[in-house]
Structures
1.
Amino acid sequence: MNKSSRFGQPAQKLSFAAKITARLIRHVQQAVGSLGDLWRTPFTSIMTVLVLGISLTLPATLHLFVKNAKAISEQWDTASEISLFLKLSVTDKAAQNLVHRIELYPEVAKVTYISADKALEEFKTLSGFGQALEYLDKNPLPATLLVTPTTRASQTQAAGELLLKLEKEREVQQGKLDLEWLSRLEAIAKLIEDIVVGIGALLCLSVVLIIGNTIRLAILNQKDAIAVMKLVGATDSFIQRPFLYAGLWYGVLGGVVSCICVAILAKYLSGALSELTNLYQSNFTISGLSFVEAMTLILLAVILGLSGSYISVRKHIRAIEPTAD
């Protein structure tokens, strides 16, 4: 015998598309309902969103600092500049030939030639011994080549290998590269990146704990209602969805707050930095978060919010069982 509906008509099975549509509608209703629950407790919700947003602002700002520091370091063309001192017997023509040969190196971006006469004139100007140097019989300074490696060859190891290669040229008497300074610069940059990762991981963990504790309190406040829902047959997955959506909304709102805070800090720091860069005749400005970085930050906040809420609901909703009076 066919099953009948309450009106005496044969019950029709829902199609797969209808089931999917009904499920989506149910999720949308629960998502909107969870947002309404946050609206009904504005103080708690705002405080949680602000704590989440500010917690993510620090690692995001440190990331911004690292990104801009890398941009500044890329503008330092002389960071790994190699100085080649030529032999005193090398003529200008031979030095120019050497310049052309070195320019063909794939690791070299630019070569600047400083003749012996020009080097002497600069030394007279900078040293303050101009008159005393007039009594010299011949120029004691050699011609010099300033070799700027490419970006890839500017790393410590690559720059050192390029220096050894250049010193094998027959016109070169000695080469000089401040590898120690480069090593310190790279070590500082690596240390800052490690600090950003460490602080970011700790703050992300704190966000998960904050969201988890907030959802736990919300579950305890609705303990009786949850017990009644289980009594009438509601499943744990149905009950926990509004709390999961609450964690999602906390993540979205907290991520937006974090992006706003980072933008404000970038604007504030750019004003202070402009005063500093003007002293060095530079026009560098801080670049804020890109659209992709902002969306990534919001996505990270959503993942953290969902993680905290999921951990909380899996533990506490299962523990609530209806009891007979």
Note: The mean pLDDT is 78.
2.
Amino acid sequence: MDSPDTPLRLTDRKRAAILQAAIAEFRSDGYEATSMDRIAARAGVSKRTVYNHFVSKEALFTAILDGLMQTSEAGFDKPYRADEPLRLQLLALLDAKMRLLHEPEFQDLARVAIAAGALSPDLARTIVEQLGKREAGVAVWVRDAAADGRIETGDPLFAALQLESLIKGFAFWPQIAMGQPPLSETEQRRVLEGAVDLFLARYAA
């Protein structure tokens, strides 16, 4: 006889299959060309099952982005510590961000998201909100360091966005928008250290 949690496990397996099928479809054919019918067929489930898990293609796509970032950003929520050097903390915090930006799957989905967002302002807003939630770790760190008097800023969110931009200007936008190759390990470290040093030169108390 099946255990009481067997249906839950089956549901989880179907959800995982849908997500993997959707990732493959979005990466290969883009957002507009991907349909819930094709996702269902690839996942081996009915279209009704897909909609039972995700109310729309937009919801499915944002769930994929969210799940990818949860997996890739292990350690990205490192809290501020008053007893540790600022530079070492920031380098550790942003190292996870750099790893995420170099995930091939994330890069492919980012390109899909940008192309889809250009055609759908509503989807673009949803994606920006989703990404903003995942990038809150840096803003929280800056806010806490400012509250402790070690960072001088009246606008922690603005300062955090500046720091993010210093990294993405080298390790995201050239690769996503201009087809530049990923940064080497040496280049990644140079970008991280340069961004952190510039940030601290401006904001360290």
Note: The radius of gyration is 20 Å.
3.
Amino acid sequence: MSVGGSTIAAELDALSPWPDQAPRIGVGERRERIARAEAALATIGADALLVTAGPSLRYFTGVSWSPTERLVALLIRAGRNPAMICPAFEKGSLDAELVIDADVLLWEEHEDPVALVADAAGPTATIALDPLLPFLITERVRALRAVTNGAPVIDGLRRIKSSAELALMRQAMAMTLEVHRRASRILTPGIRASTVKRFIDDAHRAVGAAGSTFCAVQFGVATAFPHGLPGDQVLEEGQVVLVDTGCLVDGYHSDLTRTYAFGEVGADVRATWELEHRAQAAAFAAVRPGATCESIDAAARAVLDGGGLGPGYRLPGLPHRTGHGIGLAIHEPAYLVRGDTTVLAPGMCFSNEPMIVVPDRYGIRLEDHFHVTATGAEWFTQPQPSIDAPFG
């Protein structure tokens, strides 16, 4: 399908809430996660694991709060019921979201929640700390109890997605791909990037998300900057269009980028697009259990090097990693980048986006996500087929 030819009203009217809803994460799965975390504590020499507000707290408890200056955390304790540490005045809100059985330990505004953590862990406990815990909280816990790094437990569990998690991500990706398709059809000379962004947010809402979690719409030379330029651009004939956006389904992210031509673009742009397409395919083909994250990055870069780009991060070429982990956070460990020797295993999920930047002219980024299977990889969304018909 070619780009343009429709209107904002027509495309929004054609959208409706997503019909094929993936089941939400159940209480049983969250309990299993806590049990696995509890069992893993011995492997890192810890008696308890302190999980701060944010994606990891949601992973274990269903509580979707973001971190603030007030400590809200889960304390997973070996052989004991987990404990939720929460400001006393927030108990009603906590009760409305907490789906697991836990001891709720409340603290008043003048009290020290870290002392509550230390007491709940026990006088001789070693506490493994969430890597996203604020520094000052970390140091205060360290002053009261022995501590260790909780990342091997938290990241180790979260990076392997269950079938339920994969289904939620599959739905989120499909919803965003449909929004992308609709957005490409509203493009017309003179349309502003801000108008396209508003449409994409409205379209995400129309398919059942709470709007876009982020949205980048870049035209022409702005596409040469991976995260764009300030200002509200106006689309012209003969420009490259780059759109990167996503949404949430039960806390799980989508994140897709499409780059295509609006009108006629030069032969060099088309050649670069094809090279990007081959690099993305090479990264996907290199995926298998037992391979390292950095080997996937190397596979994409080998294609770009063969096309005369780079080497390394030199431009024209790929200025950043090939991909990132994704799940309850849009960027999470592990990463497809040189130096990350994490071994791939079934259930791990990554973006695949070996962007090509031609400085001060244009950039081409094709971003889809895959999950590792027993024999290789499987796409969440099919890659873009061409520069002129981005959705076939």
Note: The chain has a mean pLDDT of 98.
